[in-house]
Amino acid sequence: MNISVVGTGYVGLVTGVSLAEIGHHVICIDIDEAKVEQMKQGISPIYEPGLDELMSRNIEAGRLTFTTNHKEGFHLADVIYIAVGTPEKVDGSANLVFIEQAARDIAKYIMKDIIVVTKSTVPVGTNDRILEIIEDNQIHNVQIDIVANPEFLREGSALMDSFNGDRIVIGANNVYEASIIEKINEPFGLPIYHTDIRSAELIKYASNAFLATKISFINEIAAICERVGANVEHVAKGMGMDKRIGGEFLNAGIGYGGSCFPKDTKALIQIAGNVAYDFELLKGVVNVNQKQRTLLVDKLNERFATLVDKRIAVLGLAFKPNTDDMREAASIIITERLIEKGAIVIAYDPVAMENARGILHADILYANSVQETLHDADAALVLTEWDEIRNADPTVFHSMKNPIVFDGRNCFSVDVMREGGVEYWSVGR
Ligand SMILES: NC(=O)C1=CN([C@@H]2O[C@H](COP(=O)(O)OP(=O)(O)OC[C@H]3O[C@@H](n4cnc5c(N)ncnc54)[C@H](O)[C@@H]3O)[C@@H](O)[C@H]2O)C=CC1
Ligand SMILES: O=C(O)[C@H]1O[C@H](OP(=O)(O)OP(=O)(O)OC[C@H]2O[C@@H](n3ccc(=O)[nH]c3=O)[C@H](O)[C@@H]2O)[C@H](O)[C@@H](O)[C@@H]1O
């Protein structure tokens, strides 16, 4: 099958590469020229384990190409995937400008019957709108069908998730286009769930909102654990053994970040609000997460009379390990608060530092290793559980002025840290 993918960010690129790997001919289109140049050379513009290798392999096999030219990109396409961003607007709703532009681009250049597949996370009703834009603006008289095919991959394990996901959701109006998209995905060998377009759109938001709810729930349990002398890890384990609850996404910490949970929870509140429904539970989830992000700053304030001129080492900046993505990372607000309070902040992340420099406060200093970050620090904050950080021996903290560690990801054993002579503050333990 000839497939075009519009937008080659985390989702578009991984989708394009995965579809090429299972044998399709894929052309990826992006408006970012520098990105496209890089990808043509087999270099991924994002950090995603295994992606460079798979890209190169499929480029060499002649199944994967890149272009900035929509006309060229759509020329042979039987199916066009839309994977452009749907970022958050100031009011929390999803910004659909990139989606609408992609629809207009499709309308302008398609010359044969096609199926448009929406991978981007879009509010209920958006697929109808995409079809309407294409039909209103199409130059050639061809048949267009639309399918909602939301994406469930996680950054940092995106390829693994594409090839081993729990389900592929296909939302369509007719059996014909649904069967084509099923056929395209068949080689993945994953369970396929067929539904209507609006339900597919909502499955995506409901799934992210539910996972975010689990995280905020366990974070509130962690707050209670700290007050009653229980251990949140033990509580989560005991809860998760019940198959109805499940053990995943019950890691307490400094809350969820990233490009999706924060924006998708707020967008779902808006989607509900638009039909006069007050999604109270989800509002609570968002509020808890907001508080959770600055929990370590509250703990620092409790420990130190003042943070003025205190040297604070920050270990980990990305919103989660194995990605260079800084979108909605807790490190942004935490480092901002520390600088406001007069602290000297020195930070380290194994891969996200380049992105971080463009986003974080200009006064932040950067180090090249865990050891260099900790040297002479008054306190250390752990914000991302990279293996390099979680595997550190407690002795590494002894180069600090005093080994005082605030761990926002519960990376270390309380006992090992205590025995290693570290004053250790974690979450809910
Ligand atoms: N990042 C993730 O892990 C996941 C994201 N999603 C959803 O997938 C969508 C895409 O997300 P990301 O890949 O993170 O976005 P991204 O921001 O990383 O990438 C979007 C890309 O689209 C390009 N673009 C914008 N307009 C274009 C146009 N008219 N023609 C061609 N290219 C265009 C941009 O230059 C950019 O490279 C969003 O709706 C997101 O919510 C869904 C599941 C996982
Ligand atoms: O729509 C999306 O973009 C994606 O959003 C999440 O994936 P992602 O944001 O890449 O990463 P997660 O592993 O879900 O982590 C999100 C945030 O939650 C935090 N988290 C996760 C799990 C946990 O138990 N506790 C916790 O605080 C992580 O540290 C991170 O900040 C979902 O897991 C994907 O299924 C979905 O496709």
TrEMBL record:
A Gene Ontology biological process term: UDP-glucuronate biosynthetic process
Active site: C260
Domain of life (superkingdom): Bacteria
Pfam families associated with the record: UDPG_MGDP_dh, UDPG_MGDP_dh_C, UDPG_MGDP_dh_N
Residue ranges annotated for the UDP-glucose/GDP-mannose dehydrogenase C-terminal domain, each copy included: 313-414
Pathway membership: Nucleotide-sugar biosynthesis; UDP-alpha-D-glucuronate biosynthesis; UDP-alpha-D-glucuronate from UDP-alpha-D-glucose: step 1/1
EC number in record: 1.1.1.22
Keywords attached to this entry: NAD, Oxidoreductase
Binding site for substrate: F152, L153, R154, E155, K204, F249, L250, N251, A252, G253, G257, K320
Catalytic activity line of the entry: UDP-alpha-D-glucose + 2 NAD(+) + H2O = UDP-alpha-D-glucuronate + 2 NADH + 3 H(+)
Family as reported in the entry's similarity comment: Belongs to the UDP-glucose/GDP-mannose dehydrogenase family.
Designated name of the protein: UDP-glucose 6-dehydrogenase
